[in-house]
Amino acid sequence: MPITITLAGNPNSGKTTLFNALTGSTQRVGNWPGVTIDKKEGKLKKHKDAQVIDLPGIYSLSPYTQEEVISRNYLVNEKPDVIINLVDGTNIERNLFLTTQLLDVGIPVVIALNMIDVVKKSGDRIDSKKLSQVLGCPVVETSALKGDGLDELSNTAVELAKAGRKSFFSRRFSTPVESALAKIRELIKNYVPAKNLRWYAIKFFERDEIVQKQTDIPKRAKEQIERIILECEREFDENSASIIIRESYDFVSDVVKACVRKTSSGMNVSDRIDSVVTSRWLGFPIFVAVMFFVYFVSVSTVGALVTEFTNEMFVGSFVQEPLRNLLSSAGTAEWLTGLVVDGIIGGIGSIAGFLPQMLILFFFLALLEDCGYMARIAFMMDRIFRKFGMSGKSFIPLLIGTGCGVPGIMAARTIEQQKDRRMTIMTTTFMPCGAKLPIIALIAGAAFGGAWWVAPSAYFLGVGAVIVSGIILKKTRPFAGEPSPFVMELPAYHFPSAVNVGRSMYERATSFIKKAFTVYMLASILVWFGASFGFSNGGFGLVDSLDQSVLHTIGSAVAGIFSPLGFGRWETTVATFMGLAAKEQVVGVFGVLTSIGDADLALQLVDSANLEGLAPVAALFASPAAAYSFLAFNLLCAPCFAAINTIRTEMNSAKWSLFAIGYQCAFAYAVALIIYQFSMFFAGGGFGIGTASAFILLAVLLFMLFRPTPKQPKIKTGRKISAAV
Amino acid sequence: MPTLRDVDVGQSATVVRVNGTGAVARRIMDMGITKGVKVLVRRVAPLGDPIEITVRGYELSIRKSDAEMIEVEINRT
After folding, report:
1. What is the mean pLDDT of residues A449-459?
2. In 3D, which of A125, A117, A127, A123 has the Cα closest to residue A150?
3. Distance of CA A586 to the CA centre of its chain
4. Which of A22, A287, A348, A709 is the most exposed, having the fewest neighbouring CB atoms within 10 Å of its CB?
């Protein structure tokens, strides 16, 4: 008979490592129904009939965050056969708090006492036999990283599931609370599943809104329950939820006192690192140095070298040329050879060139995340981000967004409050991602003689857009309200695990490659087709010059909307639209559409900062102001399709996704218009309708920025969140 | 009654009560800040907020405005 095992535990307790070690290569990643939080499944090694489901990392089974609600709904409704509760031995007290809640659910629990090697090394002792007796469930000592104790853990879990024996009833609360719970049990026992009776009684005692809504209890019973709760609250002078939490923690404290012998004391390693890394004077300089190093290595030096190698050597010499020779010797039609070699391979090749650069960046970001430094960055930046309505946690998506917007948007999942999550998702792609770097380099080279300040100004523009949007949006109705709480664990520093970093890189690389062979391939074919075909001599077919091409026809038709921004030519319009497929396509499109004649060649010219070679691109812009306006628009407008799709899945709402994309485009249009019109005006271009609209737009922006926050009825934060879930 | 906000860096205090209801108060308590527990204020972030505290053997960061919800008795040593 197949059995289901669920893995539950705190964040940062080594759950990912344990899941990987237990399931090996059999895992599948999907989403929980209705939300895009990863649902990982796999088969237990050596027990092929046992399925393992990985729950999100949680601290509690409260009704307030999506992760917690998913976990408790899964445990209560799906009724897995056994729970493996991962407990971090180095942080046992808080980890066991979740254990008490899991034991209440009424499903057999086995505790994996993890990182036991680290505990032993520090000289502390945990009496796992005693722990097992007090908690009434098996305890297995494990080290997921070293692979110790995993067989015993699997066997114990499978045995427990087959026996179907419940962990014994833990009566951990004080007498008044236990007797209140007993009374509530009597009142609700006909209306809830018998297996989870104790859990439901506790939730009713806590006045848990989700449980109250899900169950159908008669009104009279509800009133009786309320009287029981009130009586208890009077006795303790504390609200019922806090009685439950406090008594659970008191119980855990007693357990820890009885089972753990601590010998280590004083400043530990993490604390010593933190006293330098987050100190008042060195905190920010160290942060800047770390970031500079990461970007210098991944973008400028190693990354650029590898990219150049891939572009020129690999794609050019080893793939494109041999294939072209092969096709022409086989007598293939010229247009087909062009499509395959230049259109498809050239297009994908130019993008594949960015893969190594992005991989190096992802490597560093995964490293920073795994070792614990990311949490410190959030800790240091919170003060700044709170000023415009976000929390320090919003900084991490923005940082990852400088590599690629897709994982950046996904990183917003750690933000508990829905409003802040939405705001972070909307603003993450304002940051210049890796794919936007070629556009920046192109404009810097073509219109500003390779001026050094163009690239930094793009980052300032991105950061500025995030800040301004944060302030503006925070003052609108859907986003107004208390800033999201910032109660965050600062996990102990540890050496990053090669497996975790490697896996994270692998996952990102494969999704990028998948994208390259689907979306990008289609886009490359479209550009090639649009540039090569058109109406000429009264018919539709291959055309000799671009002026007759389909792209020219379409581009010219809609170019007018960009005229106020200074770049209303069909080439720039086509480039902007093709940027939706992938931002780095903008450079390639210019390559195809100008006398440069080739997408790859354009990228190489940008790479080598060949100013003369880029002259045909410079000629497309009437002034440097127009070129910068083009840059600003392309950096801030809707991101590429892959990122738009991620916004759609993460927002999980068509309305919100459309709002996000619409806001980004409108904001980009306004900023580009203001930049262009003001530059022209101050350069002595005279006052026109454009200048007037730029003044009006600026005034509107400033008003939205500085207006007082509109008054609104105070809503209890708790209710809003649980209603939104 | 002093709150956690009033505790200096390096000083420890015993929690007397967590005020407030809803998500924030619940999260604070879920993270182990409950009546009777001893907390130690470790340090303040470079910009003066939030603070880092040690509670139940691990490090937790919390904003000063949220720390105001936590009534404490400062331990004199």
Report:
1. 87
2. A117
3. 25
4. A709
Of B48, B58, B62, the CB nearest to A487: B62
Q: pLDDT tens for residues A145-177?
A: 888 999 999 999 999 988 876 655 566 799 999
Which residues, 6 or more positions from A187, have their beta carbon under 8 angstroms from its beta carbon?
A217, A221, A224, A225
Where b means 16+ CB within 10 Å and e means fewer, A557-590 reads: eebeebebbbbbbbbbbbbbbbbbbbbbbbbbbb
Residue B26 pLDDT more than 80?
A: yes
Chain B residue numbers touching A62 (CB-CB < 8 A): 26-27, 30
Write the residue in B34, B47, B66 that is nearest to A487 by C-beta.
Answer: B66
B12-18 vs B70-74, strand pairing mode: antiparallel
What are the pLDDT digits (tens) for A102-121?
A: 999 889 999 999 999 988 88
Query: Do A664 and A468 touch, CB atoms closer than 8 A?
Result: no
Using CA atoms, how far apart are residues A632 and A307, in angstroms rounded to an integer? 25
The H-assigned helical ranges of A533-569 are 550-558
Q: In whole numbers, what is the pLDDT of chain A averaged over residues? A: 84
HSE of B33, CA atoms in CB hemisphere, 13 A: 33
User: Any idea what the Cα angle at residue A696 is, between residues A690 and A698, rounded to 5°?
Assistant: 100
What are A320's two structure tokens? Answer: 């494109």
pLDDT in tens, A349-393: 666 666 777 778 778 878 888 888 988 998 999 998 887 778 888
Q: What is the pTM of this model?
A: 0.80
The rounded percent of chain A whose pLDDT value lies above 90 is: 30
DSSP letters spanning A160-219: HHHHTPPPPP---S-HHHHHHHHHHHHHHTTTS-GGGHHHHHHHHHTT-HHHHHHS---H
- B44 shares contact with chain A (CB less than 8 Å): yes
Helix, strand, or coil (residue A578): helix
What is the pLDDT, as a whole number, of residue A512? 67
Number of C-beta neighbours around residue B33 at 10 A: 28
Euclidean distance between CA atoms A271 and A490, whole angstroms = 10
Token duo for residue A464: 């500025």
Q: Alpha-carbon distance B54 to A274, whole Å?
A: 13
- Would the pLDDT of B5 be above 90? yes
The ipTM value here is 0.96
The amino acid occupying position A338 is: G
Phi and psi at residue A208, to the nearest 5°: -70, 120
**Measured distance CA(A596)–CA(A598) in Å, rounded:** 6
Q: Where are the beta strands (DSSP E) in A324-383?
A: none
Residue A43's identity, in one-letter code, is: K
Domains defined for chain B, CATH in brackets: 4-74 (2.30.30.90)
> How wide is the angle at C-alpha A66 spanned by C-alphas A55 and A468, nearest 5°?
130
Pairing of strands A125-126, A82-88: unpaired
Q: Taking CB atoms and an 8 Å cutoff, what residues of chain B touch A245?
A: 26, 29-30, 34
Task: Find the mean pLDDT for residues A670-692.
Answer: 89
Measured in angstroms, the CA of A399 and the nearest CA of chain B are apart by: 19
Phi, psi of A412 (to 5 degrees): -70, -5
